[in-house]
Amino acid sequence: MSRKFALIIGSGWEHLSPQDGGTEVETAWGLPSGPVHRVCFGPTEVMCLARHGDGHALPPHVINYRANVVALKKLGADAIIALNTVGVISDVREAGQIAIPDQILDYTWGREHTIYDGRRAHVEHIDFTEPFSTDLRQDLLRAAVAANVDCFDGGTYAATQGPRLETAAEIDRLERDGADFIGMTAMPEASIAREVDINYACIAMIVNPAAGRGDQPIHDAVAASTETARNATMSTLQAFFRAL
Ligand code: HPA
Q1: Considering its fold, how many domains does the chain have in total?
Q2: In this structure, which residue's CA is closest to atom 3 in ligand 1?
Q3: Which domain holds residue 71?
Q4: What is the separation, in whole angstroms, between the first and last Cα of the chain?
Q5: Is residue 120 assigned to a domain?
Q6: How far is the CA of 222 from the centre of ligand 1 (A)?
Q7: 89 CA distance to ligand 1 centroid (A)?
Q8: What atom in ligand 1 is closest to the CA of residue 218?
Q9: Does the residue 196 lie in any domain?
């Protein structure tokens, strides 16, 4: 089990209080979304990077995923726990709950998605059959059990381009494709992490039924469910780091 952990936090985590002013890191692909902070879970210090920037200004399609992941690699991370808000398409879980997905469908486009961009002497075609780290997923699932959090084991995360939400017909198509959850940020984050040999797993925080699936406007569902999903995530993280 790897030991140097990083969190990539997304929407709704602004209150996760850093212990420092942050470390600025430059990479061959430019600057990450912001400084890398340190947060503490008991005695464990964890790197923490806000995917959308400290002021939440960066939309999903503009984020420099390469710089973010490579910056964490440069600081020595060998495991990333990504926190991603999602809508739920299938009936595996409801808004307010969490899941540790095990598969990805990638519908994003136009993002700088690989470190193999022609500047290197070689290309490695990474094996992405299992897009998430099996060991890290299992450890997170064990932590959820220890924290008494109802967490779905598995499911397919569909990554869309955003920043707009989907149409109901798009969600129907994604369901036919086999998607359980829909979000905008796990790709190309997960594949770049694999390229630089960092174990990567995602806690999917379900904050709304996907378009056309709920009985209230999506933003009302998000407002009603985010805190519950965030509390479930926080309890899981605390149990995870306690168990190290
Ligand atoms: N669609 C795409 N991304 C999301 C959603 C959604 O419904 N909810 C949270 N992130």
Answers
A1: 1
A2: 183
A3: 5-110+129-242
A4: 9
A5: no
A6: 9
A7: 10
A8: 7
A9: yes
